[in-house]
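Why does residue order matter? Because the sequence determines the fold. Keep that principle in mind as you read this record.
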Amino acid sequence: MRTVATVAELRDQLDVARAGGLSIGLVPTMGALHEGHLSLIDRSVAENGFTVVTVFVNPTQFRPGEDLDAYPRKLAEDTALAAERGADLLFAPPVEEVYPDGFATSVSVGGITETLCGAPERRGHQHFDGVTTVVAKLFNMAGADRAYFGQKDAQQVAVIRRMAHDLNFRVQIVACPTVREADGLALSSRNAYLTPEERQRAGALSRALHSVAGALTEGETDAARLCELAHSELSPVDEVEYFEIVDPGTLEPLTTVGGPALAVVAARVGATRLIDNLALQPSTAAVSAPDTTNPTPQGAVI
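Structure:
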């Protein structure tokens, strides 16, 4: 596996792969790779002839006071892990390569960026502007056939799908299942911030999600009552930012769960902000009609 730091080197390597008839898989990350990231690499390696992993801690998606400086950076370890899992190329650019002097462009998606994590009282839609801007740049830099993202960041996946559709990117967006610890905690680079005591309390997020899924299976479909049940399970955390049951495509809150839905949660344990989600399906509900207001790009994998 080769490591490159410039867009020119990246494109040179990918041009050679394409000339050889290989499909390109892109795995964008901010580094500090864990088994969740590695599962994305595994999926890309299985589905493509050439896999490029990007490691870039994107400053534009951090608000003032957030953990940009403290965010874990482990490039040597990340390089070894990506190579072990079969990646062909690692792209690890410096900030000035992605945002050169005078950079003045932003990609912004409306609507679904302004709720949940993007609500003004939380991270704000500017967080997602940073995500969509850097991901749009990576799509243009790599010209990949497929791009792989973790379903743990469900809102991010929905936003990237919307952007890719609206801007006519030809890349196929592939969302991969959340990878969890043995007790159910979703893997995240931010888990490293948790003390052993906080780590134990953080398991409440997964327990809340699965309690809701269990109640739904038993016939409870009122979203408010399901959310009340979740809040009772979340008592060990320090702050619940939100627990909502939403439409999987539009992220609009539901009052009744009559078809596919998504339970989403954000909470703070100590100083660490954690998110998680779980797909829901009532056992007797008919599948709802396709959402024509938020179309999925042709060929996208949900």
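The longest helix spans residues 125-142.
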